Amino acid sequence: MTIPTQLSEKLLAALQSVLGENLPQGFAPAVTPSQDLRFGDYQSNAAMVLAKQVRTNPRALATQVVEAFGDSELATLEIAGPGFINFRVRPEFFAGKAAAMLSDERLGVAVTAQPKTLVIDFSAPNVAKPMHVGHIRSTIIGDTLARISRFMGHTVITDNHIGDWGTQFGMILWGWKNILDAAELEKDPIEALLSVYKTVNTKCKEDEALLPICKAELVKLQSGDPENLDIWKRCIEVTKIGLEKIYAQLNISFDYWLGESAYNDALAPLVDDLIAKGIARESEGAICVFSDGFHKPQNDPFLVQKNGEWVPVPAIIRKADGGFLYATTDLATLDYRTQNFNADSIWYVVGAPQDKHFKQIFDIERMRGVTGDFRHVAFGSILGKDRRPFKTRSGDTVSLQDVIDEAVARATKVVEEKSPDMPADEKTRVAQIVGVGAIKFAELSQNRMSDYIFDWDKMLSLSGDTAPYLQNSYVRVRSIFRKIEGAFIAPAELTLSQDAEIHLARMLVRFAEVVPATLDDCRPNLLAAYLYDLARAFHSFYEACPVLKSEGAVRESRLALCELTARVLKQGMGLFGIEMPERM
Ligand code: ARG
Question: Does the CB atom of residue 465 touch ligand 1 within 6 A?
Answer without folding.
Answer: no
